[in-house]
Amino acid sequence: MAVCAGCGGRPFYTRRYSGETLCASCFRDSIVEKTRRTVAKYQMIAPGDRIAVAVSGGKDSLSLLKVLAGLYSRRPNHVLAVSVDEGVAGYRDEALDHARSAARDLGVEHVVVSYKELFGFSLDEALDWKEERDVSSCSFCGVFRRRAIDEAAVRVKASVVATAHNLDDFVQTFLMNLMHGDVARLGWLDPARTDSSFPIRRVKPFMEIYEEEVALFAYQDRIPFQSVSCPYMHEGLRSEVRDYLNTMEANHPGMKNVLLRSGLDLISRYSSSSGKQFVSCSACGKPSSNGLCNVCRMRAAVEEHVNMERNSRSVGGG
Ligand code: SF4
Ligand code: ZN
């Protein structure tokens, strides 16, 4: 029987793509070490950086918070948690509770911003309007979510925002961008992105770790995470791409790793040759590619709908 490649102990997990078998303790250490190496390789975090970890309350983001808080434990106030309350009744509360208690246990500051406070409506109110929308719930929500995380990061004076995107997220998004013909968005996958549209560096310290391994880390560390799914979750193409990639990986171990390398190679070539220009959004002043940013465009549409609903209710209801 195979033994742990690190210490000769009892086997716990075998990486099919490399053939490496590890015991539980060496597996855990390997995740922390891989994160540390990814951070160093892509120069994600510099000494003195203040790192805001975007924590949704799911297993990936809670694991990332734990790993980064451990790696930077000697530098007080360097890691903190930011969460977004989208305003989904019966769903977000549990996740936010997990985020709060994880931050408390790790002794890190935790800041929560909400859609209601930032945009004037909750996701429940915004998604009440379905028929006229031409994007899925998650694409719609994602536009506001990114802005909310940015706002939270600015509020806590962070110099870096760390998100828990893992290797599976990366390759799924990479393929989906190609399938949508959206090559211009490949730059968003840059592992340590700073651009003229946002001065805070966005980093993905888990981007070289398989989703399965992050999940195993969370289970092994007994990290309590959200059990309920968002009622609006609509992944469409993503779940098909995920199934396809999982089948490919099962038949050809390491395939996701190869796709990650290809994606990174393409991104570096693309970003060095593309000089995308931004102009200020006419409504909020944030950078946009065409004069009105996506947040303001969608926000105006939601407000119009919410006002129409209000008016029709007041006319109908007297
Ligand atoms: Fe928003 Fe989709 Fe996440 Fe629900 S699952 S909070 S709709 S991104
Ligand atoms: Zn705007």
Structure write-up:
With 318 residues, the chain is of the alpha/beta class. It folds into 2 domains: 41-274, HUPs (Rossmann fold), CATH 3.40.50.620; 277-312, no CATH class. 49% of the residues lie in helices and 12% in strands. The protein contains 11 helices and 10 strands. The chain has helices at 24-41, 59-71, 92-106, 115-119, 123-127, 137-155, 167-179, 211-220, 237-251, 255-273, 294-317, and strands at 13-14, 21-22, 51-54, 79-85, 110-114, 160-162, 192-195, 198-203, 279-280, 287-288. Strands 5-4-3-6-8-7 form a 6-stranded mixed β-sheet, sandwiched between helices. A two-stranded antiparallel ribbon has the order 1-2. A two-stranded antiparallel ribbon has the order 9-10. Strand 9 (279-280) and strand 10 form a beta hairpin. Helix 1 crosses helix 8, helix 7 (167-179) crosses helix 9 and helix 7 packs across helix 10. The longest helix has 24 residues, at 294-317. It is globular. 33% of the residues are buried. Zinc ion (ZN) binds at residues 281, 283-284, 286, 293, 295-296.
What does the oligomeric state look like here?
single chain
**Secondary structure tally, helices:** 11
CATH superfamily of the largest domain: HUPs
Instruction: Count the E strands.
Output: 10
What proportion of the residues is helical, as a percent range? 40-55%
Round the Cα radius of gyration to an integer and report it: 21 Å
Q: What's the story with the biggest beta sheet?
A: 6 strands, mixed
CATH architecture of the largest domain: 3-Layer(aba) Sandwich
CATH T-level topology of the largest domain: Rossmann fold
Which ligands occur here? iron/sulfur cluster, zinc ion
**Side-by-side strand order of the widest sheet:** 5-4-3-6-8-7
Morphology: globular
Helix/sheet category: alpha/beta
Mean pLDDT, rounded to whole units?
Answer: 88
Cα separation of the termini: 77 Å
| Low-pLDDT sequence parts | none
What is the chain-wise order of helices and strands?
EEHEHEHEHHHEHEEHHHEEH
Taken as a percent bin, the fraction of beta residues is: 5-15%
